[in-house]
Structures are given as C-alpha cells and as structure tokens.
Amino acid sequence: MTIHILALSTATIRRAQEVISSCEACNKEAELPFDWVLDEVTGCDRSTTDYFLTEAARCPRCGYTIIEKTLVEAEL
Ligand SMILES: [Zn+2]
User: Fold this and answer.
1) What sign results for the dihedral spanned by CA atoms 14, 33, 76, 49?
2) Ligand 1 geometric centre to CA of 51 (Å)
3) Residue 27 φ/ψ, nearest 5 degrees
4) Could you identify which of 25, 43, 59, 73 might form a hypothetical disulfide with 30, taking C-beta atoms 3.0 to 4.6 angstroms apart as the criterion?
5) What is the pLDDT of residue 75?
6) What does the alpha-carbon distance between residue 73 and residue 32 come to, in Å, rounded to a whole number?
C-alpha cells in the first residue's frame, strides 16, 4: 500500500482549526485524533495519507499546540 504525504497549507490548517472546540489539554472528553478532522477537511483517507503540518494548529480554547495525534473535540 502506498502512503501519500500531504503537506497541509496554512489555509487548510486554519479550516481544520475552525471545527475544533477544545483539545485533550483542556477537555477530558476530547477523543477525536486531529488527523481524523484533517480527513474530513481534506477529503483524504488517513489509512493511505500521512499529514504533514507546515505549522502547528492551536486549540481555540487553551492555546495548546495541536499535532496529528492530539485528541480534540470537533464539531463536524
Ligand atoms: Zn485546549
């Protein structure tokens, strides 16, 4: 199986960040990995896509740095 590496633009990261309401640092209920949100925003499939964040996303509630495996709460 081929894994594609997708470098995410700032605009895409912003869009993903807009659907996040909180993260594992400020919300114990957060259970969605951020890359799942990225699948929704980009229309890609994480089983064949590795995301590369050109800049870190930030939690809108606490400002924590969010990377691919950070657990978040999102409104999709
Ligand atoms: Zn947070």
Assistant:
1) positive
2) 21
3) -145, 110
4) 73
5) 87
6) 6
23: which 2 tokens?
């993260």
25 C-alpha vs ligand 1 centroid, how far in Å?
A: 5
CA of 2 to the centre of ligand 1 (A): 33
Whole-number percent of the chain with pLDDT over 90? 87
Cα(39) to centroid of ligand 1, in Å? 20
Distance 14 CA to ligand 1 centre (A): 15
Both tokens of 40, joined, read 């929704």
Domain boundaries, the chain: 4-74
Render pLDDT for 8-39 as a digit per residue (tens, 0 to 9): 999 999 999 999 999 999 999 999 999 999 99
Helix axes 34-42, 10-19, angle to 10 degrees: 110
